Amino acid sequence: xxxxxxxxxxxxxxxxxxxxxxxxxxxxxxxxxxxxxxxxxxxxxxxxxxxxxxxxxxxxxxxxxxxxxxxxxxxxxxxxxxxxxxxxxxxxxxxxxxxxxxxxxxxxxxxxxxxxxxxxx
Length: 121
Known about the structure:
It comes from Flavivirga jejuensis. The chain is an all-alpha fold and about 120 residues long.
């Protein structure tokens, strides 16, 4: 298994976790953070701490995703060639496309034309 494949698998996992963390959040104060608060005086973990945890985990996962994407670019196997394009290859043979033959007008075209008899006259 190549290094790029490992990075690709990690990117997929981190992207999935980031989606889950973002979907759990609710900008109006609801979502998972309101279920921990419950509206009463008893709080399991506290609303403020849950919001802070979700906020920090979102930024951490987003940063990790960006770092993994940049690191995967380094791990791509580019082969042994250093030239990316044939246009940049100076040793490549240069061949010009063959010119297309130009049609020569014939003087018999006007003489062999027949009138259209589709009108019935």
